[in-house]
Task: structure prediction
Amino acid sequence: MPIRSLNQSSSRLWQALSLVLLCVWAVIVLLPLLVVFLTSFAPSGVALTGSIFPANPTPVNYQEAWGRGNFLLAFANSTLVAIALTPFCDDRGGERSLRPGAAKFPNPATLVIPLWSG
Result:
């Protein structure tokens, strides 16, 4: 068997093994997230049976969390901070140095404070 053919088959074997390992790892990581997501639709105080699918799925938990956690305010604060800090990020995704005077507008943290107060 020529050496070139042996290297190609070895490379294909490694690619196949890598793909299998990647798929197994994806299942290991994503399955718990799927279970948590599906269980979040179960009514509060209801014990789950052997199935990960709730018997009576309902979005009540999300409605309650939205109201209690004040998610709209948190979302507005996060959006404002992201918009304010975007000019400081370079094209490679890293952070530029946040040296005083580098910004063309006031300190981004001062823009968030009015949202926290009310």
